[in-house]
Design a protein that fits this description.
Layout: H1 10-13, E1 18-20, E2 29-31, H2 33-41
Antiparallel strand pairs: 1-2
């Protein structure tokens, strides 16, 4: 299976910071903006964020 473009329902992401889609392999973990902001504020290293959807 190949995903060309991700599209999420914003109302289903409310309150989530980290989630995955059961249909995709384990290494596909998604995070929301609050998670990214906290990582940046904490100056944590080792994260590689890639924007997959703007909403």
């Amino acid at each position: 299976m190949r995903v060309i473009r991700y599209c999420f329902y914003p109302e289903r992401l409310k309150g989530l910071t980290v989630f995955k889609l059961p249909e995709l392999p384990l290494q596909n973990v998604f995070v929301t903006d609050p998670f990214v902001q906290r990582v940046q504020e904490g100056k944590l290293v080792g994260f590689n964020f890639k924007l997959v959807w703007e909403g």
